[in-house]
Amino acid sequence: MGNAKQNKQSQKNGDSAKAKRDRRQKREEYRAAMKQEGVAELPRKKFYRQRAHANPFSDHRLVYPPHPDMMDWSVLYPDYAVDEPKEDTPAPAQESSEQSVQEGQQETSPESQSQSIVSLNPRKLSKQVEVADIGCGFGGLLVALAPLMPDTLILGLEIRVSVTQFVEDRIKALRLKHKDTQAYRNVGVLRANTMKFLPNFFHKGQLTKIFICFPDPHFKARKHKQRIVSTTLNSEYAYVMRPGGVVYTITDVLDLHEWMVQHFTAHPSFERVSEEEVENDPCVGVMKTETEEGKKVERNKGNKYVALFRRLPDPEW
Amino acid sequence: MAAVDVPYHLVKACRGIIFAARGSDIHSFNSSFEHISTWKYPSAKGETQSEAQSSPAPEGPPAKRRKLEEGEEPASNGREASSANVNGQGKPKGWQDSNPALETPWIQGLYITSDGHHVVAITNSDKTIWVFEHDGAGNLKQLSQRPMPKRPCALAIMPDDRVLLSADKFGDVYALPLTPSDHLPIPSQHTLISRSVTPGTPSTTGGSTPIPRLKADETVVHTKRNLKALENQKKAALERKQPIAQDNRPQFEHALLLGHVSMLTAICVAQATSPVDGKTRTYILTGDRDEHIRVSRGALAQAHVIEGFCMGHEEFVSRLCMVKPASGQGNDVLVSGGGDDDLYSWDLVHNKLVGKAPLLPRVQEVVGEEANKLAVTRIVAQKDEKGSWVWVICERVPALFRYQLQEDSTLRHSETIKIPGNPLDVAILGTSSSTRLLVAMEPSEQGFSSLLVVEKASEGETDWKQTPVPNLPEGSAPGGVKIGAEELRKILYTTESLRKLTDFD
């Protein structure tokens, strides 16, 4: 397979290089236009495509606070800020020094956020993020959950830069479009590698719901260690969740479903939520139908495997 | 390339006996540095293999594909092994040099139980944990040899001296009984499943693995190419018939306690008393390359519960050390260091940063203003009548830095002692009445001893007396050979390479 691919590539090399240049140019023009203030038009996915996988073990060029207290959430949820913007405080963001040099590169974080999410003295919000969609992709679930939980702050986390930018532009456009109803003020998106940096963003017991929808299946046994669910990583999910909170998982890959069930049930901090309760949970329906992957699976008449896990209280010690 | 002697690189002291590792050997001495015994890495052919040449330098992210070692099952088929060979990523240039000094795994860590009855060592390229019985007079008897699934980076010994905690490059922490005949005090249902256990069999169902089921099916993949690949996989599976699943877990008793998705660099067991209920609890502290210090419950059956994180480092963490307050009152203070310019001190129970003590300016005083970064390689606590102290050494900085723990749990620099070589390890010798240190170093001059005693003869003195340790056993370099200076440094100085590259995409 590898050989065939190479041949094909070298044949098309001349054409595709030009096509690639054109595409990139169009993409840049489009993104620049989207950056203009007051654009209420919803972004178009074709200008934000990015390969489907990102290596969670790589360092990437991530921006994250060294401590959750240094996260300025008002950048994402300005309508919930309860105090005035503080006088300019130096932001010792991780890796932030390269931002200016590397501007425009694929690996940098969405331009609009990178300079300000980390602050020594962040503005306070009237409430904190309680729902996280880990690997939110193009944001279908976020947008569907926003009106369902209008009083809850919902955060999408995505490791791919372009895709994060899409969601950011999408939220921006939606907020503008629904100016009169103030809708979508409660959703935000961040570029992050949650497998490594969840505790940089959230305090202990902060979250009530975590969604893990159609995660990368990593079919090869050698790649299983990159899966976003594992017993050891589940300890971190347990840490950021309050007892009673629920982890929602859905996938179209049976093997991955079984893996997630096995790894969550093997973890003493979680129990599987009963069939009956799953059926009555309104979030489950949304998760099945509103995620981009969910729609794709629907079109292809695939299966959807759902499993929910409740965070149990920690035992005395 | 200049050939140099292999220096001592690890030192530990226990009740008048000194253990010092040099290459793959462990030597013991009495307090007047008379040689007692030597343990040599078994050189039997077939037992150790050529793979041992592989450099112990950290290879970046733990997930990196690496050359399979003999005795390890190939993961599914021969293809992986060969393709990994071709890739050969991350191997430093010249790693194929067949220097006998590099063929045997080096001792990477040396530990002594609190009762002094056991010595534990980790060797690097064979990923093995060795336990020795110590007769109290410097003689070691090898009790066990346990190869771990991934390379251990650091060990801790539980306060009861019965359980070892091994933190590995993959990010996992395993508990092992100190002596293999013993058992772990952990009910089996509390054992987690490692991400590194990759065979297709769920480990809980045990036993029956009929036909390997393909992970994907037509409902999952749709593109032409993926469908084609799926068809090929099916064909291959039918031809193979044998289940591909196999178990690469160690055969000795062990339990996975916790894991980071990041390379672990340090592990430490601490005890602290809660101001709320007055109860004293044990904690497991783990430091990683991604700036985290995780605080987990030290009750082994509950080690999956994260009590908190000590967040604040902005570069890798490489060392953790518990320091007793001078007054003897109150909890020990956690001191951490790594790639940051400062040493951090923490209130463990509240996961609160208490203070930062500048270290970079002190380093600059030794190596020059142009130094703009540092990598802490050791933090060692020492307590005497005059106070509670912390000794710090940094990679390639020929000095010992002494800090004093203040009453408010912060650290204050007290003095810097320049030494004739780059320090590799420090051990506190002697009692509290006089301060006496043993330093292992890479001497800056050839022919100079690599062990140095640094002491303050009497209390009134301000100068530190430095005495090289003479009469080291001859020919104790691995295989009695010299090693290229560059090669040696590649093995000895691996901490700075934990730093993230800023030009990395």
From TrEMBL, chain A:
InterPro entries: SAM-dependent_MTases_sf, Trm8_euk, tRNA_(Gua-N-7)_MeTrfase_Trmb. Residues 94-116 have a biased composition (Low complexity). One of its GO terms (molecular function) is tRNA binding. The keyword Nucleus applies. Residues 15-34 have a biased composition (Basic and acidic residues). One of its GO terms (cellular component) is tRNA (m7G46) methyltransferase complex. It catalyses: guanosine(46) in tRNA + S-adenosyl-L-methionine = N(7)-methylguanosine(46) in tRNA + S-adenosyl-L-homocysteine. Catalyzes the formation of N(7)-methylguanine at position 46 (m7G46) in tRNA. The active site is at residue 216. Its EC number is 2.1.1.33. It is an enzyme of class 2 (transferase). Belongs to the class I-like SAM-binding methyltransferase superfamily. TrmB family. S-adenosyl-L-methionine binds at residues 135, 158-159, 193-194, 213, 291-293. This is tRNA (guanine-N(7)-)-methyltransferase. Pathway: tRNA modification; N(7)-methylguanine-tRNA biosynthesis. Residues 1-62, 82-120 are annotated as: Disordered. It is found in: Nucleus. PANTHER family: 3-DEOXY-D-MANNO-OCTULOSONIC-ACID TRANSFERASE/TRNA GUANINE-N 7 - -METHYLTRANSFERASE, TRNA (GUANINE-N(7)-)-METHYLTRANSFERASE.
From TrEMBL, chain B:
InterPro entries: Trm82, WD40/YVTN_repeat-like_dom_sf. GO terms for cellular component: cytosol; nucleus; tRNA methyltransferase complex. Its main location: nucleus. Residues 213-240 form a coiled coil. Required for the formation of N(7)-methylguanine at position 46 (m7G46) in tRNA. In the complex, it is required to stabilize and induce conformational changes of the catalytic subunit. HAMAP family: TRM82. This is tRNA methyltransferase-like protein.
